Amino acid sequence: MDLLAAMRAFVTIVDTGSLTAAAAALDRAPPTMVRTLATLEEELGIRLLVRTTRQMALTEEGRVYLDRCRRILADVEEAGLAVASSDAEPHGQIRVTAPVLFGQRHVAPAITRFVRRYAKLDVDLLLLDRIVHLVEEGLDVGIRIGPLQDSSMIAVPVGHVRRVVVASPDLLAKFGGVERPEELSSRPCVVHHGSAPGGGWRFRNPASSRHEPLAVSVSSRFASNQATAVVGACVESIGFGCFLSYQVEPEVRDGRLEVLLEAFEPEPLSVQIVYPDARLMSSRLRCFVDSMKTDLKGRPEIQRRTRLQDGCEQG
């Protein structure tokens, strides 16, 4: 069996919506398409499509295989272009994942500039506030904040974000400021589950010679897994909040929130571009990583600075 031809047939079947339409698109007889699909499924040992007299639907395995087929076929086409011309423009699709709010504020604008520059490249951006296994979920590259969990990934650092405590001017006028993290235990607070996992807030402990963190339990008047909702509650003076610095940069910049306890902030978290083994990188992925590295490193908002008020959101 010609595996590449079978992959191309499978993709065409899905894109056209039927075996008959795929056969016409590839100039083949419909029975040939039926045999090709059946042979491919037999070789893989899985069902790719569920077929009835009225419709076809991808199985879960079929969806995964479809994404891989698209990437492989694009790589094959790109390889041909590269051989034909050393100046060939990168071509194909790149699938990217990033945290939701960071992706909206920084990654999506950078990708917009990238696709405007490279007309033959398409980017699919998946915004999720969870760690995604790139290979298993058919993704090419991820933007991560914090320690890298998978040592098999290549990581390119592009900046840092801080973990900051903030409050609105009205809340501070009502309850007063805080001199030490422990005082937050007796103050009203709002909690973003993603920025403060485990229900407690951690700080650098200047009194600890062993660099042990200082953990503070807080009472939550409002909590959510969506940072935007919790930041909004913080702006409305519902309580003190603990966030990653990029999540509150606009509110701090325009004076709606003030940063507190800077002397107790833990070490900044690294912002990284991650991808699988560099030896297997396609030219389009290398082009994308290089572009994102330059774009994100060039933004002052994600470089290490002393104060958010100086225009630096991510420490």
Describe the structure in your own words:
- It is elongated and about 80 Å long.
- A hairpin with a 4-residue loop joins strand 1 (49-51) and strand 2 (56-58).
- The relative contact order is 0.14.
- It has three domains: 3-83, Winged helix-like DNA-binding domain superfamily/Winged helix DNA-binding domain (Arc Repressor Mutant, subunit A); 89-161 and 269-310, 3-Layer(aba) Sandwich (D-Maltodextrin-Binding Protein, domain 2), CATH 3.40.190.10; 163-264, D-Maltodextrin-Binding Protein, domain 2, CATH 3.40.190.
- It has helices at residues 3-16, 19-25, 30-44, 60-84, 100-117, 169-175, 227-235, 245-253, 283-297; strands spanning 49-51, 56-58, 92-98, 121-127, 141-145, 154-161, 163-167, 188-192, 200-203, 214-217, 219-224, 240-244, 258-260, 269-275.
- The chain starts with a helix and ends in an 18-residue tail after the last helix.
- It is α/β, with parallel strands linked by helices and 315 residues long.
What is the strand and helix layout of this fold?
Layout: H1 3-16, H2 19-25, H3 30-44, E1 49-51, E2 56-58, H4 60-84, E3 92-98, H5 100-117, E4 121-127, E5 141-145, E6 154-161, E7 163-167, H6 169-175, E8 188-192, E9 200-203, E10 214-217, E11 219-224, H7 227-235, E12 240-244, H8 245-253, E13 258-260, E14 269-275, H9 283-297
Parallel strand pairs: 3-4, 3-5, 8-11, 8-12
Antiparallel strand pairs: 1-2, 5-14, 6-14, 7-12, 7-13, 9-10
CATH class category of the largest domain: Alpha Beta
Unreliable stretches (pLDDT < 50, length at least 5) are 305-315
Structural class: alpha/beta
Number of helices: 9
Average pLDDT confidence is 85
Most strands sheet? 5 strands, mixed
Distance between the ends: 55 Å
Q: What is the fold-level CATH name, i.e. the topology of the largest domain?
A: D-Maltodextrin-Binding Protein, domain 2
